[in-house]
Write a structure and sequence with these properties.
Largest sheet: 7 strands, parallel
Strand order of the largest sheet: 3-2-1-4-5-6-7
Shape: globular
CATH class of the largest domain: Alpha Beta
Low-confidence stretches: 361-368
Mean pLDDT: 91
Structural class: alpha/beta
Number of strands: 13
Order of helices and strands: EHEEHEHEHHEHEHEHEHEHEHEEHHH
CATH architecture of the largest domain: 3-Layer(aba) Sandwich
Strand content: 15-25%
Helix content: 25-40%
Length: 368
């Protein structure tokens, strides 16, 4: 079996984590996996896959995306002798480009599986949205199955592209327990109590809302020694540092930077928080649930309210987030472990890929 997976770069956001799970799943099954990264992020978050002899990795280092795409096309032409059993993407631009290459005959495939990673039409506007629409028009006609993470995402996409209706399915994000079982063993030493959040430091993640909610929480003497730890890096670092200073929280809120293994941080936290304004579906929420019994999330994506025993609050509402944090910290949550584990078992990477391979994709993987 031959599997091709293409990504913008070798960083490790939510969409990349999904594709990495797929790559490792097929590698363990003995398939030949071809990974293509159009840019080197210099973080090299995929280096642990180098241990697989059947994973073939190409990283383009051209200074422009156009040059990388051209080089990518030439390399695919060399692989034309292969008919790929499965092609996987999870980024609109990459999906559009690969679809175009298939149209041009540079790439042969049996099944092209694309996944939407966010709510494009809610998240972007103006010229940026127009650019994304061009990619949809460019190559999505060659996609065989287009995965949306939630019913809301599917409905939103079909408002703009009703012609996709026969190929769009809802399939919830997977989780790979074999990866987690190795990563969660790492030990960390942090000399204080903390709540934790993780993600790129961008507006959509709502860390400014979280910091303000945490400021309210600190007014309770019970949490005098509690800190907020935010894992991740991004273009809002300076803005967030200034906000932290303005609230006199410079010693209380720690911007930890990029962390390759988040699981020990989640496990040892007093609570885990997703504060996003908008998401396709936050993979980090599942990671938090695998490690911690106390989990708070804003209602930032479809399906959030269907998850049992997490505490859900409104988006863009620091007061509601403060109340949610206070509630989860003060209440017993031991019963959540069994409930979370049972929920996560239904989202295993094995079940996810098998449903694709066996063509048993359903409209809604909650069973409705």
């Amino acid at each position: 079996m031959n599997v091709l997976i293409a990504l913008p770069d070798n960083s490790l956001g939510g969409a990349e984590q999904y594709l990495k799970m797929v790559a490792e799943y097929y590698a363990k099954k003995g398939a030949q996996v071809y990974l293509f990264f159009l840019k080197d992020s210099f973080i090299n978050s995929w280096k642990d896959l180098n241990s697989y002899d059947n994973i073939n990795t190409t990283i383009y280092t051209s200074k422009t995306n156009i040059k990388s795409i051209i080089d990518f096309g030439f390399d695919l032409r060399k692989l034309k002798k292969y008919e790929f059993d499965f092609i996987y993407t999870s980024h609109v631009k990459i999906t559009g480009v690969l679809g175009l290459f298939i149209k041009w005959g540079l790439l042969r495939k049996k099944k092209f599986i694309a996944r939407e990673s966010t709510l494009i039409f809610k998240r972007y506007s103006g010229i940026k949205l127009l650019i994304y629409k061009n990619y949809y028009n460019l190559g999505y006609s060659k996609v065989d199955s287009l995965i949306c993470q939630t019913q809301i995402m599917r409905d939103e996409l079909l408002k703009f592209y009703p012609s996709f209706s026969k190929k769009v399915v809802v399939l919830n994000n997977p989780i790979d327990f074999s990866i987690i079982s190795n990563l969660e063993k790492e030990r960390i030493s942090i000399g204080y109590d903390y709540i934790v959040a993780a993600g790129r430091l961008i507006k959509e993640k709502g860390f400014d809302i979280l910091i303000r909610a945490f400021s309210e929480l600190k007014k309770d003497n019970e949490y005098a020694n509690l800190k907020l730890l935010i894992l991740g890096e991004g273009n809002q670092r300076i803005f967030l540092k200034e906000l932290i200073a303005s609230l006199n929280l410079s010693r209380e809120v720690i911007l930890q930077g990029l962390v390759l293994n988040v699981y020990p941080y989640f496990k040892n936290a007093k609570a885990c928080v997703v504060s996003s304004r908008v998401e396709g579906f936050p993979n980090v929420l599942l990671q938090m649930m695998s490690q911690n019994n106390k989990v708070v999330s804003t209602n930032c994506a479809g399906g959030i309210n269907d998850i049992p025993n997490i505490v859900v609050c409104n988006v863009n509402d620091e007061n509601d987030l403060f109340k949610a944090l206070s509630f989860v910290l003060k209440n017993d949550s031991n019963k959540n472990r069994a409930i979370f584990d049972e929920f996560l078992k239904k989202r295993s990477i094995e079940k996810f890929v098998e449903s694709i391979e066996n063509n048993t994709l359903v409209k809604d993987s909650y069973g409705r």
